[in-house]
Specification:
- This protein has helices at residues 6-16, 36-80, 82-96, 100-109, 115-124, 140-151, 159-164, 169-172, 175-180, 268-282; strands at 126-130, 136-137, 193-204, 211-225, 233-247, 252-262.
- By secondary structure, the protein is of the alpha+beta class.
- A six-stranded mixed sheet has the order 2-1-3-4-5-6.
- A hairpin with a 7-residue loop joins β4 (211-225) and β5 (233-247).
């Protein structure tokens, strides 16, 4: 709602004021001005501004109560039947993630394969590599060495697999978006964020069907309050284990939420703090 520009009203009033005889002050030489018009308009502006402020406060209170109700309903559904909630969420995820060919197009639209970036990714992520001969390699340095030797050849039969092997696959397959959008896991749309806490990769090149599996623990949080001079702290709502399976030979791309781990239910006081922060951000 637009606020009243009191300063402009005051300036306009001053422009119309004329000096009048001092009717009540009998001291000779007095130069005091009586400003009845200004006082009246300022009083009117203040009343209008106060009314506008009260109206805004009322709207904010309505929004806060609405968000509290939505959050309360969301918590009840999540905690009463996590398995049913998980089934519903997987339906939403499957409806939003790309098809196999769309995912291939996403990979091909990227710049040339970043070998250095891939090596950095597997160095910080628990990675298991199964070679075509069935050898299992888990040491990051050995995985990097195998990749370096293979990529040095002319043929690069597994480059799509290596391109997909990144934690960003959870963004490219819309998993994070499905968790934090308005009709996703956090239904009230409370400025939710999903941060990756732990990821593991499985790259299998054996049996003539090379494929890649990424499993990740995602921590979903919402802002709860704001301290002066500091950013808002965040509370965990739920932990999610998500998995992506990619097999170019079978033209298969599968995305699934394997498990939901609800955090402790918020108290009424905490829910109000979340709602107030949400309204503050929307204003």
């Amino acid at each position: 709602m637009p606020t009243v520009n009191t300063r402009n009203n005051v300036l306009q009033s001053l422009a119309t004021i004329e000096e009048t005889p001092n009717e009540f002050d009998h001291d000779e030489g007095s130069t005091e001005l009586k400003l009845p018009a200004l006082q009246q308009k300022t009083s009117s502006s203040s009343a209008t501004s106060s009314s506008s402020s009260s109206s805004n406060d009322g709207l904010d209170q309505e929004k806060i109560l609405q968000i509290q109700t939505e959050l309360r309903d969301f918590q009840a559904a999540l905690h009463s039947s996590p398995s049913a909630f998980l089934t519903e969420m997987n339906s939403l995820v499957r409806a939003s993630f790309p098809t196999f060919y769309e995912f291939i197009a996403i990979l091909q639209q990227q710049p040339a394969f970043d070998k250095t970036g891939f090596l950095q990714e597997i160095a910080k992520t628990k990675t298991t590599l199964y070679t075509p001969r069935g050898v299992t390699i888990t040491d990051p340095k050995q995985v990097a060495r195998y990749f370096t030797v293979e990529s040095a050849g002319r043929r690069k039969p597994h480059e799509l697999i290596y391109q997909a092997a990144t934690s960003k696959i959870f963004e490219k397959t819309s998993v994070i978006e499905s968790l934090t959008c308005s009709n996703g896991l956090i239904r009230p749309g409370l400025n939710a964020k999903a941060s990756m806490k732990d990821c593991s990769f499985e790259i299998s090149l054996k049996n003539g069907k090379p494929h890649f599996v990424a499993e990740c623990f995602l921590n979903v949080t919402i802002p709860c309050s704001r301290r002066v001079g500091k950013s808002a702290s965040r509370w965990t709502v739920v932990g999610v284990i998500a998995e992506v399976f990619f097999c170019p030979c079978d033209e298969t791309l599968l995305v699934e939420l394997l498990h939901l781990s609800p955090a402790k239910e918020f108290s009424e006081r905490q829910m109000r703090a979340v709602a107030k922060e949400c309204v503050r951000r929307s204003n």
